[in-house]
Write a structure and sequence with these properties.
Strand content: 15-25%
Shape: globular
Oligomer: single chain
Radius of gyration: 21 Å
Helix content: 40-55%
Length: 415
C-alpha cells in the first residue's frame, strides 16, 4: 500500500469526534489524515458520550447515524452508556457495541481495517469484518482491557479480568500487526502470544494546539490569584485515576498551617466519579471543580495553571497511559505524577524530563512536591521547557500520524 489513494480504509473506534477527550480525538485525526491522503475512509463508531458518560443531546434516541465529517464517512451505532462503572455495567456497554455492530455493520468492503482498543467489542468487530472481507487487520492498543479490569479497582473487575484478557488476546493474535502506545504494554501483549516481530510502538501525539494567549488574563478570568499555586487535573474522573488523592491533597493544604489559599487544587472535566468526588470534597475550601473546556480554551487553561497533575491508583501498572500527558507536555507547565513507580505513566514522565513522580495515593508526598516546585520558579520553567521540547521531538502530530500510516502499510503488505 504505497499510496492510500483509491483504497478503502475502515477505522473501528467506539470513541470518535465530536468527543474532545480520550481516544476520540486520535481516532478522528487518523481518519481525517487517511482521507486527506486519498483513502475512502469509513469509521464504525458509537454515539458520542465521553467523558461525561452521557450521549450528546443531538444523538439521543437515535439507533443509527450515517454522517460525513471532514471527508470521513462515520457509521454510528447505538449502545448502552452506563453512568456508573462496574464490571457488569461495562460488560453491558461492550455487549451493546458488539451486538449492534454485528447486526448492522457498515455496508462497505474495506481494503484494510484499523481497530482502536480498549473497546473489546471494537476489537472483536474489527477482526470479524476484516476476516469476512479477507483483508488485513491492524490494532492500536490504547489501554489493555483485561489488565484494566484487574487493576482499575472497578467493582467486580477481578472476576472478568481473565475473560476480557482471553478475548483481547485472541483479537491481538489474529491481527496482522499490533501497535502499542507505550513500550510498557509490549511485554503484556507478547505474553498474550503475539510475536514480538508483529508489535510496533506507536505513541500518541499532542492533539491540541500550543497555548498562545495571555496567561495572566486567563488566571484572572478563572479567579486564580497570582499568589496562589494552582494544581490542575484535567480529564476523565473515573476509578483508575484515583482522584481521591487530590481531594486529600487539597484538604491537607488547608489544614497544615500554611497561609490560606497558598495551594488550590482544581479538577476540570467529567466522569462517573465526579459527584462522588464533590461529596468527598465537601468542606474542603482549597478545591474547585470546573466543567470541561472547549478546544480553543483548553490549552490556555492548562498553561495558566502552575502544576499539572496526573494521578492513578497504585494498582495501575501496565494497562493504561493517560492521553492527557501529551497535552500537559505541550502546555509548558511542570507535571507531578502521583502514580506507581515503574508504571508506564511514571516512565513516560521521567523520560520526558518534564515533571516529577511521587508515590501513588500519597497526598502528603504530592503536596510536598507541589510546594517544592512553587518555591523554585527556575525549575518549573526548565521542566516546562523540557515538556515542549519532548513534544517537538517525539509527540508531534505529523510524526504520530506517519507512524499510523506506516503501521497500515506494513499490515497491508504482510496481509
Amino acid at each position: 500500500m504505497d499510496s492510500f489513494a483509491g483504497r478503502r480504509v475502515l477505522v473501528v473506534s467506539t470513541n470518535y469526534a465530536p468527543e474532545h477527550a480520550g481516544i476520540g480525538p486520535y481516532s478522528a485525526q487518523i481518519a481525517e489524515h487517511l482521507a486527506a491522503l486519498g483513502a475512502d475512509t469509513h469509521v464504525l463508531a458509537g454515539m458520542p458520550h465521553y467523558p461525561a458518560w452521557r450521549v450528546h443531546e443531538e444523538y439521543r434516541g437515535r439507533w443509527r447515524v450515517r454522517e460525513v465529517l471532514e471527508g470521513v464517512t462515520v457509521h454510528r451505532r447505538r449502545h448502552t452508556v452506563p453512568r456508573r462503572q462496574t464490571a457488569l455495567r461495562r460488560g453491558l456497554f461492550e455487549a451493546g457495541v458488539l451486538a449492534h455492530g454485528v447486526v448492522a455493520p457498515p455496508r462497505v468492503r474495506p481494503d484494510v481495517v484499523l481497530s482502536q482498543m480498549p473497546s473489546l467489542a471494537g476489537g472483536v468487530l474489527g477482526a470479524r469484518i476484516a476476516r469476512r472481507a479477507g483483508v488485513p487487520h491492524a490494532v492500536v492498543v490504547q489501554d489493555l482491557m483485561g489488565a484494566a479490569a484487574g487493576q482499575s479497582g472497578m467493582s467486580g473487575g477481578g472476576r472478568v479480568a481473565s475473560f476480557a484478557g482471553a478475548v483481547e488476546g485472541r483479537v491481538l493474535r489474529s491481527a496482522a500487526l499490533v501497535g502499542v502506545v507505550h513500550e510498557s504494554f509490549a511485554d503484556r501483549v507478547a505474553a498474550m502470544g503475539v510475536p514480538r516481530e508483529r508489535v510496533r510502538v506507536v505513541p500518541n501525539w499532542t492533539h491540541v494546539r500550543a497555548p498562545g494567549g495571555d496567561r495572566a488574563r486567563t488566571r484572572a478570568r478563572l479567579g486564580w490569584p497570582e499568589d496562589t499555586t494552582v494544581v490542575l487535573h484535567s480529564g476523565n474522573m473515573g476509578l483508575k485515576q484515583g482522584l481521591e488523592v487530590l481531594v486529600e491533597t487539597a484538604r491537607l493544604a488547608g489544614q497544615d498551617g500554611a497561609p490560606a489559599g497558598t495551594v488550590r487544587v482544581v479538577l476540570m472535566g467529567e466522569g462517573h466519579r465526579r459527584e462522588y468526588l464533590r461529596e468527598l470534597a465537601r468542606g474542603v475550601g482549597s478545591l474547585d471543580f470546573l466543567p470541561p473546556a472547549d478546544a480553543e480554551e483548553f490549552p490556555e487553561i492548562l498553561a495558566a495553571a502552575d502544576v499539572l497533575a496526573v494521578t492513578q491508583r497504585a494498582s495501575v501498572l501496565d494497562m493504561s497511559l493517560p492521553s492527557k500527558l501529551t497535552s500537559y507536555f505541550a502546555a509548558g507547565r511542570p507535571v507531578v505524577a502521583s502514580v506507581a513507580a515503574g508504571s508506564g505513566t511514571a516512565r513516560e514522565v521521567e523520560r520526558s524530563g518534564a515533571g516529577v513522580v511521587v508515590p501513588a495515593e500519597d497526598p502528603k508526598a504530592l503536596l510536598e512536591a507541589v510546594r517544592r516546585l512553587a518555591g523554585d520558579p527556575g525549575e518549573c520553567a526548565e521542566l516546562g521547557a523540557r515538556g515542549r521540547e519532548y513534544v517537538e521531538r517525539r509527540l508531534s502530530r505529523r510524526a504520530g500520524l506517519e507512524r499510523i500510516t506506516t503501521l497500515l502499510r506494513e499490515a497491508s503488505a504482510a496481509g
